[in-house]
Predict the structure.
Amino acid sequence: MDLATVLGLILAIVLVVGGILTGGEPGAFVNIPSLLITVGGTLGAVIMSNPMERIRDLGKILHKAFFAESPDLVGLVQTLVSFAEKARREGLLALEEDAMQLEDGFLRKSIQLVVDGTDPELVKAILDAEIGILEERHVGNKQMFDTMAELAPAFGMLGTLIGLIQMLKNLNDPDALGPGMAVALITTFYGSFLANVFGIPISRKLSVRTSQEVLSRELMVEGVLAIQAGENPRIVEEKLKIFLPPKLRNELEVERQESKGKAG
């Protein structure tokens, strides 16, 4: 579970609701017609704007935002360096059995292409194309929440217009002014809340997830091509460390020194 996503969502909801409760009259913020206009209208428009296959995958997309873990870049570098060491000792064909045991399908495919003797330029072209397709797919998933963030305030404004029309139509009836004013104001609140507490943050978290996954796959491509070229494992490690932030580089160095100490 991604604590930042969960805690951020809970914090936003608790503080907004807390502000409403401390201001008194929380029941004034509950209006069923406003919910139907804003939430129902936004969801309908989002469904209309996307293919049904993407809507069916909504649960998986939300799961990625709330539960996906950041790639283990240090572990990935260590794996590739160990593959480089084995390839130098025993040849590329010795990696085939290890590749079949990898959980990551992209890395497994990358190593298999190298073991099969595929031309390095073709390996890079195939893997780069797969990364590009991944990015396009993730952009489409993110656009669902961009659409929600864009349309929720618009449906809030639509509800405001509906409320104003109801008010103007019933100016001679004081009892009808209150409900009309409630719809006019609360729909704007609902639209802004839906966009800023859910739509925009989820969209941005999905962007972060995409960047992390693309970075890890680019690291894999660089490592696999270096292994195929028969480069020294130490050089492979230095190449791959470029993809790591300073904190993870230090962590990798500490683990390498610990491994040397145990081996000694």
About this structure: DSSP finds eleven helices and no strands in the chain. Residues 3-17+32-73+121-263 form one domain. The CA atoms of residues 4 and 52 lie 30 Å apart.
